[in-house]
Design brief:
The chain folds into four domains: 125 residues, no CATH class; 140 residues, Immunoglobulin-like; 118 residues, Immunoglobulin-like (Sandwich), CATH 2.60.40; 86 residues, Cadherins (Immunoglobulin-like), CATH 2.60.40. By secondary structure, the protein is mostly beta strands. The strands form ten sheets. Strands 11, 13, 15, 17, 18 and 19 form a six-stranded mixed sheet that branches. Strands 9-10-12-16-14 form a five-stranded antiparallel sheet, with no helix packed on it. A four-stranded antiparallel sheet has the order 8-7-20-21. Helix content is 15%, strand content 43%.
Length: 597
């Protein structure tokens, strides 16, 4: 099933008395598979269709959630169940050379169900054959710098040029590939922070556009301060002159891109992009050109069938790597479905652009006073709840850990508190309906309370992993004894402590923080080192140092750390005494081998 040349098709022609051999049955499978995969390739595209999210489980493990994807050959890649994987067990881990890794997935087949084949034994003496081919997947890791983004259909309509790139920031310029008569062209300069280092930058560039008004303009971004992964977009607008329509493409030039940071000025790369003037609407132009291509060349060309499903940032030392952060797929490999287009169309009745919204508000009458309207706008949702079914596989084995999918609590980003309860439903003969009980905490306390439910109380350990920057959480459950259930209903309650949120984000807006350089220290057992804090956008002040592992050695109030005799990785929390919400972490790798000078 690794064939890419899916056509031309041949199918079996059945007739009474026809002798069927293995070749005929293989042809039957190939005919159906090839048609489906070619349809997947040309109608749906390549990428993640549903699920397949990747999140960090701990410093050395990730959680790969179940899901479906389509590779570049149109083959379905299915992850049937959520898995917890040690990073060091994934193919390619030993070959990583940088702290920016990418997790990939690819289609794979495996021969299963060995059987004895009489005809094979008669011909060559070996009667072993496999009765099934199991479709699955394989995972691998690669350095981000070695990964190549495959060309997408959208690249024909949106052109991109790189204006500047270093280890700290990337600046891309985007323009539509065409413009229709009577429309405005919008260019976008994307400035993206790609490191954790602090700093303020400024960017400038001169734009010259043939056959456009204005013919020349300046792009400026002054005193830009971004956190890691954040992006700022600077827009340019052009109105095409009538005389360019009916002629060839016009050129837009981005000249003298300049970046200023840390008191120094650095030159970027000049770029020139072309825009084609067309007489038809954008919808009609895409309809006319979207089908263009050559099927045999497109299918035969060399392309990568891997899917990059997550970026992983690592903290690396000589022989150790820890997961710092798991990021979205680096090349946005997702499949857009007709269902998503339907949802967008439906949402259009509820959401409008800023300009449309202003025009709508002007014509509407409201009975609310200005004070009431302003107060309502300041209201924030501070609590939510929900219920979900957690799958326990074949019946909830004792000691086995089961994870939920990533659940969105709806309270936005930032710190939240989440409580869990297991739902029990019993038949109440007195009312003729269902009576529900929800037990939070240790269910064994109610194990003897037979009135609370007709079924026995489940004794399980529960844990919640909250992802503040994503506005989600993951639930983990470990049964203490076999439950005999394939799933349990869990109700969750989430609330946001407003005072904590205000303190954290008020401090974050001020951009005051503490950093440690370096944030990973390698020592021999019983060795010592002085932790060097750096204060960003705040005055120096007293700090407190706390070892999160009681057996992880000693650290005094001056930041002098003494390693224990036991090798391992230990974490130190460093926080400002006057403002405990300002904190950072340092990691110490205690290793006899790495600590030797």
């Amino acid at each position: 099933m690794n064939n890419r040349k899916y056509y031309s098709y041949e199918r079996n022609n059945y007739y009474y008395g026809k002798m069927l051999t293995s070749r005929d049955f293989q042809n039957e499978q190939s005919y159906m598979n090839d048609k489906r995969r070619l349809t997947n390739r040309l109608l749906h595209g390549t990428g993640i269709v549903y699920g397949m999210d990747v999140v960090a489980a701990d410093d050395s493990s990730i959680i790969l959630q179940s899901g479906l994807a389509l590779d570049a050959s149109g083959r379905e890649i299915t992850v049937p169940r959520t898995e917890v994987l040690k990073l060091s067990t994934i193919e390619g881990y030993e070959e990583l050379k940088t702290d920016r890794a990418v997790l990939g997935i690819a289609y794979a087949e495996e021969d299963t169900d060995p059987v004895y084949a009489v005809m094979e034994a008669a011909e060559n003496g070996e009667g072993k054959r496999y009765n099934r081919k199991k479709e699955g997947y394989r995972l691998f890791l690669s350095d981000l710098k070695d990964c190549v983004r495959d060309e997408k259909k959208e690249d024909q309509y949106v052109k991109t040029a790189l204006l500047y790139e270093d280890e700290d920031v990337t600046i891309l310029q985007e323009l539509p590939a065409f413009v229709s008569a009577g429309m405005t062209v919008k260019g976008k300069t994307r400035i993206r922070k790609t490191s954790h280092g602090p700093g303020v930058i400024s960017f400038s560039c001169r734009v010259e556009a043939e056959g456009m008004l204005p013919a020349s303009q300046e792009v400026h971004g002054e005193n830009i301060s971004l956190d890691y992964g954040e992006e700022m977009v600077l827009e340019q607008s052009f109105r095409p002159e009538p005389y360019i329509f009916g002629k060839e493409a016009v050129r837009v030039s981005f000249l003298k891109p300049t970046l200023q940071k840390a008191g120094a000025e650095e030159a970027g790369t000049e770029a020139r992009l072309e825009i084609l003037p067309v007489q038809v609407s954008p919808l009609e132009y895409v309809r006319q050109t979207g089908h263009r291509g050559t099927l045999d060349i497109d299918l035969d060309r060399t392309y990568d069938e891997k899917l990059w499903i997550a970026g992983i940032r690592l903290i690396r030392s000589r022989n150790h790597s820890m997961i710092e952060q798991v990021e979205r797929p680096p090349f946005d490999q997702y499949v857009c479905t007709a269902e998503q287009l339907y949802i967008l169309e439906k949402l259009h009745g509820y959401l409008a652009s800023e300009q449309e919204g202003r025009e709508e508000i002007r014509v509407q009458k409201s009975s609310e006073s200005p004070a009431e309207t302003e107060g309502t706008a300041r209201e924030k949702r501070v609590n939510s709840s929900g219920v979900f079914e957690l799958s326990l596989g074949n019946g909830g084995e004792a000691g086995k850990v089961y994870f939920s999918d990533e659940i969105m609590h709806g309270l936005g980003t930032g710190p939240v508190c989440v409580e869990l309860g297991i739902e029990y439903i019993s038949r109440d003969a007195g009312t003729g309906g269902d009576r529900e009980a929800i037990i939070l905490g240790d269910g064994s306390i109610f194990a003897e309370d037979t009135d609370s439910t007709e079924e026995r109380v489940y004794e399980v350990d529960q844990a919640i992993k909250i992802l503040p920057e994503r506005g989600t959480f993951i639930v983990g459950v470990r049964p203490k004894s076999k439950l005999g259930k394939i799933g349990i209903r869990i109700r969750w309650y989430a609330f946001k402590p407003e005072d904590l949120e205000q303190r954290v984000y008020r401090r974050r807006e001020q951009k005051g923080c503490i950093m440690v350089q370096p944030d990973t220290i390698v020592l021999a057992p019983k060795g010592s080192a002085h932790i060097q804090p750096v204060f960003i956008n705040m005055p120096e002040e007293a700090l407190s140092y706390t070892l999160l592992d009681p057996e992880g050695g000693k650290v005094d109030n001056n930041g002098v750390y003494t390693a224990p005799a036991q090798e391992g990785v230990y974490e130190i929390r460093i926080e400002a005494v006057s403002s405990p919400e300002i904190f950072t972490h340092a990691f110490v790798i205690v290793s006899q081998k790495n600590g030797e000078k």
